[in-house]
Amino acid sequence: MTRDEIYNELKAILIDLFDIEPELITLEADLYDDLDIDSIDAVDLIVKLRDMTGQKVDPEVFKKIRTLNDTVDAVVELMKDQKAEAS
Q1: I need a labelling partner for 77 at 20 to 30 A (CA). Which of 21, 62, 66, 71 fits?
Q2: 55: left (phi over 0), alpha (psi -120 to 50) or beta
Q3: How far apart are CA 5 and CA 19, in angstroms?
């Protein structure tokens, strides 16, 4: 998956799962301040990331995620880990 594909997938998840207005979703959007993601929503998002990547998301890594761009970066890393395990 490319970064754009990951972003589009995450955007679709945010729209579908949390009813966030599409125009609010940008790479710079803060998950908590701009998109009103709370701790329960964060758990739901972690589950979706696991489904998307096939990898378990380390809660310590997720605690450092603030923006949607951070989330895209985390998914890229998880997918790298998945490819490394498959080799």
Answers
A1: 21
A2: beta
A3: 20
Q: Tell me the per-residue pLDDT of 5-61, one tens digit each, with 9 for 90 and over.
A: 999 999 999 999 999 999 999 999 999 999 999 989 998 999 999 998 888 888 888
CA distance 51 to 6: 13
How many Cβ atoms sit within 10 Å of the Cβ of residue 87?
Answer: 4
Q: How far is CA 62 from CA 47, 68, 78, in A?
A: 12, 12, 12
**Rounded to two decimals, what is the model's pTM?**
0.87
